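Final report, section 2: Outcomes. Of the targets proposed, Asl1-like glycosyl hydrolase catalytic domain-containing protein is the one most frequently requested by collaborating groups, and we therefore present its record in full.
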Amino acid sequence: MASPSKRGLCWPTANHGQDEVHTFTRPGSKISWLYNWSPDATPNANSLDYVPMQWNHIHIDDLASKAKTANATAVLGFNEPELPDQSNMSVELAAREWLRCVEPLRKAGVRCGSPGISSAPQGVVWLKEFIGRIRDRGSDVGFYCFHWYGVELGQFYDYLWSTYYQMPDQTKKVWVTEWASTNWDKDNPLPKEHVEAFAKTSAEYLDTLEWVERYAWFGPMRDTAFSLFPDTWVAAQYKADGTGPQSDGHDGLQKLGNLTNLLHPLYPYHTAMHPQTNAICA
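The predicted structure is given below as tokens.
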């Protein structure tokens, strides 16, 4: 198996105050890095490598100073800019702001990840056009960032390979900065056993791919309002001590029981799933 340094957290800033990310830095942890959809560093991340993200073009002039404050060696580009309900940026706008505020970081030696595209068909089209445009101006991305949501392993693998080989340079690595198994049906979600097996098997597969440098499963969050999905669709509870939570009904989660050692030794913490979600903290 490849180095566990691939394994990371997409850690919402809303988690701070409920859960502390430093619990994942204890001895034996296989988590090595995190990002939080923001250029502001997560408090108490200890040994985890924090990677700032410039979610859209708002306040992009602050990116360089925040990356410097965080001692960042890499930054992540815009979040799903091809989608109206995400950063919603035209290629023209994204390229202009990249050249203005991200390119100076690249010239200073910071690795600059591409905008993270969704697995919707327009994602790869958008990214290819974006890369072409910044390359024409002497810039480039340092690595490619892909997201994927769907049901079956084969669909995920096909997406990864086909999208990677549509990129202009296969010497560059891929970061899978969001992925999960979901059918988007809150009334008839996928069985939790399917999602557990998918998470474990797909992450182990990513470990075997030399061109996948890092990955982060979506997602370890309690605050469903921040989860980028409608409120009753996504939530995850977790503890690092392996005991695992069982809802008493006061937090809006139904009792599902312990999913002890769900992904052990893949990830060294316990998770529980919302009854109306297919995303797990993994």
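The chain has one domain: 4-273.
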